[in-house]
Amino acid sequence: MKSLDHYHQNKFNRFVPERQRKAVLKLIQALETALSKDDVRSEIKQHLIECIGLMENHDGEEFFPLAEKLRQTNDLHKILRLIHPWLKDEVRDQDFSVVKTDGQIKRSELIFPASRQIIVILDNLRSVFNVGSIFRTAECLAVKELWLCGITPTPDHRAMNKTSRDTCESVNWRQFDTATAAVLSAKADGCRICALETISGATSVYDFEPSLPMALIIGNEALGISDDVLKVCDDYLYLPVQGWKNSLNVGVAFAAMAYHLVCNNQISDKFKGAPQ
To answer: How far apart are CA 87 and CA 244, in angstroms?
Structure first.
């Protein structure tokens, strides 16, 4: 997309139906990219709605419900879920060989009992690569379950086994329509709800005293954790960084956070000698 006014009305009307469809799909992709950019998001959203309105009825009917729903909301997570069916999966995973030493399990009597009391809730993650990475870490750490919410890819995705390095079958997982529903279910099970989010008032994971059982929430790559979910959390945690970037990739952040939570002395000592 060259600019927000790239598709002038007269020019758009001269497009053949297939070209109009491609233009709308391009705007949908641009809207996803701009979701976290307040200065351009609203303009792209409005331009997308206008372009859909210019399409002939029989050619644009698949987009008409989208335009109407976009008019009715400014909630970023709702917008993401609305446009998700039209987004391309642009993740490209590399094929590479790994040394086959899998299966040689050596569980720690200090760590394993703690890991089995941790649930991980993924709030509208977009990238199958990130979710696959989290599955792999979850399997290595033996966490109890992954709860996949909203648009988060599931193991049914064609690329998941590749990105997770075939760990999906070894990790228990559940699917929820929303992260809010998942959090309420975790609370009902007695879990303390901890959000990994760089917000004001968050506690460094290195200053945090864990309490088990626990549900750890990981948010969308661009938008973070939705406000509705944050409101019902018990703790807000962050990983300290030393560079200008204020956060890590979600898969990397989860790995760093999860390993610290289950391997630190506070939890290890608490569960020392617990049955496996």
So the answer is: 30
DSSP secondary-structure letter at 51? H
Per-residue pLDDT for 77 more than 60?
Answer: yes
The b/e string for 175-201 (b: 16+ C-beta within 10 A; e otherwise) is: ebebbbebbebbeeeebbbbbbbeeee
Task: Select from 200, 212, 201, 195 the least CA-distant residue to 257.
Answer: 195
Please answer whether residues 182 and 147 qualify as being in contact, where contact means their C-beta atoms are separated by less than 8 angstroms: yes
Pairwise CA distance, residues 55 & 64, whole Å: 9
Q: Are 122 and 218 in contact (CB under 8 A)?
A: yes
Cα separation of 77 and 45, whole Å? 14
Which two structure tokens, joined as six digits, stand for 87? Answer: 């987004």
3-state secondary structure of 253: helix
Q: What is the pLDDT of residues 81-135, one digit of tens each?
A: 999 988 865 434 444 444 455 566 677 777 788 888 999 999 999 988 999 999 9
- Cα(62)–Cα(177) distance, integer angstroms: 23
pLDDT at 110: 72
Residue type, 155: P
pLDDT of 218 above 90: yes
Helix (H) or strand (E) holding 236: strand 235-238
Per-residue pLDDT for 193 more than 60?
A: yes
Three-point CA angle 22, 28, 29, nearest 5°: 90
Residue type at position 42: S
Among residues of the chain, what percentage have pLDDT more than 70? Answer: 87
Q: Which residue has the higher pLDDT, 247 or 156?
A: 156
Pairing relationship of beta strands 145-149 and 203-204 according to DSSP bridges: unpaired
Interatomic CA distance for residues 259 and 257, integer angstroms: 6
